[in-house]
Amino acid sequence: MAHRRFSLIVVAGSVLLFAGTMAANVVLDPEAVFGTGLFPPSANRNERVERLQAYKRDASSVDGLLFSSSRGVYLDHDMLAQKMGVSRLLSLSVSYGMITDHLPILSYILRDKAAREQKLKAAMLLLDADFFGTPPWTDSNINSFLPPELSGESALRYWWRYLTVFQFRLWRDVVRASLNPGRGQAGASGSNEEPVMASPSRSPTLTMSEDYRRRWNSNRPDFDRQYKKLEEFVGLCRDNGVQLTVAISPLIRQHLDQYEPGMLDALIARLSRVVAIWDFSSSTAIADHREYWLDISHFDRDVGTMMIGRIFGNDRIALAIPADFGRLRASRQN
Amino acid sequence: MLFNSLEFIFIFLPIAVTLHFLAARWGVVVAVAMTTATSLLFYAWWKPAFVLLPIASIICNFWLARRIQEADQKAARVYAIVGVVANLLVLGYFKYFDFLISIFEQRNPGIADVPLALSFTTFVQIAFLVETYRHPEAHPLPRYAMFVSFFPHLIAGPIVRWSELGPQFADASRYRVNWENFACGITIFFLGLAKKVLFADNLAVHVAPVFDAASQDLPVTAIAAWGASVAYSLQLFFDFSGYSDMAIGLGLLFNFRLPLNFAAPFRATNIIDLWRRWHITLSRFLRDFVYVPLGGSALGQGRRAINLFATMVIGGLWHGANWTFIAWGAFHGILLSINHVWRTWRGLRTPTIPGRIAGWVLTFGAFTIGMTLFRSPDIETAGRLLKTMMGFGLAPVNAPIAVSFDFWAMEKQYVTEAFVRTWFGSYWSMVGTLVTAGMLAIALAIPDTMEFVDYREGEPHSDWRRGWGFLVWSPSAGWAVAIVMLFAVVFSRLNNFSEFLYYQF
């Protein structure tokens, strides 16, 4: 073979690979960032982009916001809107959602509202004590990059990343799901349901000694940065006249036992220096009863309803709320 | 911009090569100016404002070279000394200022914010001034600017000489596409890329936890310390030799031949031979511009040992302003001196097979110990690891495992948690051990890139090549398919940002 032909074959092969990758990303759109819409939504869709798009669609009518991880999906949004006194509540719940996700979009929405000469009335922030301070999912995976409007990242770099990422398994899953509807994909189009959150990838899945797992879970290398972001979040709400409610999500006993005694309590106490917090993390009545839990991480709708009742008053709520479920930890109590 | 980034491979490189040969239609000077401009753009991608530094350096050094060339012998010597000292002062200011202050303040030196490529361009330009002093000839500025800034070697070498590249830049026939060099270049580039992405980056994840733990005085086992040091030796080899291969491949795309930088160094059975095969262009520079001027081996055994020691300490210091690099250089200076004494005593006999095996174990073992110094962030960390490697200190059995590589094996109950904790500790793993052993086997048994393609520019004085028969590269359909498939595998891994280790030097 001539050197020239060899060179051209290698160059052509490489360019085809590159062009094929870009075409597959645009056509199959596993993260749903291009909005191609030719295939059903993928389980790997970028929820952070979706929620920004959701806001943009309803920007003029939204006057209340819910910030949470996928756990917030199980709060009754209509009831919450009514109790918060807002006419249009937008849920900004995303899988593994943390303060690193919530602060940029709150900041964006407040700027947008100011430009529209509108006000945001109220916001609810549901934090997960088990994740606070751990390395965030934000901007760490192809499905968790914040859109450039929120991150300040160059749009060119953002789109280049989504155009050129080689993600064979996800392309395959998208094609399989389109050939075999109902299998392999989570989150049907139009559904508000989130995919069930798996165990955090950082945690070992095998049975380890309790002592070992507790130490693993106590490691919070990003705590200080996230604490500052929480302060900033609270400050933004205060400066813009937004009525803010902050709560800590409930945890199941199996999950609670994976933390060193008093560790979560101390963490929440520290967070409550920033803002008054409704602490639902360790109610025995909820934590010990498996029927309240969809899985190790997610509480069910009844628990969500009880949380709303406890925070905003339980009129018109038929459920009996356990006495130890939820306590207000006032700001600067420590 | 990194050689292993998609924007480099699919945007910058095709544009730069195309512009070079298109510009050549209007003349050599136009092509030289065009490639100098693209090279400076390549540099500016890192921090745009810093591009002024190589530009200023090129102009000043060119001016000095002109003065050297035009002046009489005595004045030329003064200009040459001023040039060398000025280059070293600039390097010293950016790289060693904080280190010197830290000595007086009795603290560990901080991490210096050294402009990219400064260490390499300083040596390239010092060599140019000395060559001009020895052989005073006039060279045009455009060619000199391209010689210094040519992006394939700009950031991390190979450290080129004017005598190698200057004549090539002056040869008008080289400004036409040479498909033979292009085919060879693209093959070398992809093989180097694979070394970096598939081998070096896979070792990095195992190395970091052990060195980080040791720096925090957390317990590591002897197996972990040895494992991480061997893994780092291999990581550095695959990373830097992969980078050098890519640089040589890129040079060939432009029809220029850069010198070899690595020649399967881990197959060496003595430390002298290893240094002839590891970072060859740096060793060559140190030999010609430090060791020989100090007297080399001409003044007896004792003086040779002192000269070797001084040369290697300077070589160590060139890598960074830290006591660890000085200790690493001193350690190798001692090893080289011992090796020379051994040779003098034994004579140049052909070693037996057991002798070669013993020589390899000693050479690789010593090199690995040196790498412990090289990789450690400070001398205390290196001390802890070396102490552990000598058999002192084991991780407490109840320390939690901090790396998850072995969890699958524990989950499947192939091994117990206690076994992993006891032998590998909290920061090293069974998987890390197997990966490292596999990579060592690759470094020893698989032909080197330059053996595959039979590239011999700047060949070292070492009998390092083996005959690989049918494996030797040729522009065949089989090789074309193999290279495209290899690139496909590499391409699937290119989304992770990974900087070359030698960028920091």
Approximately how much beta-strand content do the residues of chain A carry? 5-15%
Shape of chain A: globular
The value of Rg of chain A in angstroms is 22 Å
Helix content of chain A: 40-55%
Counted beta strands of chain B: 0
Question: How many structurally independent domains of chain A?
Answer: 1
Anisotropy-based shape of chain B: globular
- Poorly predicted regions of chain B: none
| Biggest sheet record of chain A | 6 strands, mixed
Identify the notable features of this structure and list them briefly:
heterodimer, A: 334 residues, alpha/beta, Rossmann fold, six-stranded mixed β-sheet, 8% strand, B: 505 residues, mainly alpha, 21 helices, 68% helix
At a glance:
The complex is a heterodimer of chains A (334) and B (505). Chain A has 334 residues and is of the alpha/beta class.
Reconstruct the topology from this structure.
The complex is a heterodimer of chains A (334) and B (505).
Chain A: H1 3-28, H2 47-57, E1 64-68, H3 77-84, E2 89-93, H4 99-115, E3 122-127, H5 148-151, H6 155-164, H7 168-179, H8 210-218, H9 223-239, E4 243-248, H10 253-256, H11 263-271, E5 277-279, H12 284-287, H13 301-312, E6 327-329
Parallel strand pairs in A: 1-2, 1-3, 3-4, 4-5
Antiparallel strand pairs in A: 5-6
Helix pairs in contact in A: 4-9
Chain B: H1 6-24, H2 28-44, H3 52-70, H4 73-105, H5 118-134, H6 141-149, H7 151-154, H8 162-170, H9 179-215, H10 222-253, H11 271-277, H12 280-294, H13 301-319, H14 323-346, H15 353-375, H16 379-389, H17 407-411, H18 417-424, H19 430-445, H20 449-453, H21 477-491
Helix pairs in contact in B: 1-2, 2-6, 3-4, 3-5, 3-6, 4-5, 9-10, 9-19, 9-21, 10-15, 10-16, 10-19, 12-13, 13-14, 14-15, 15-16
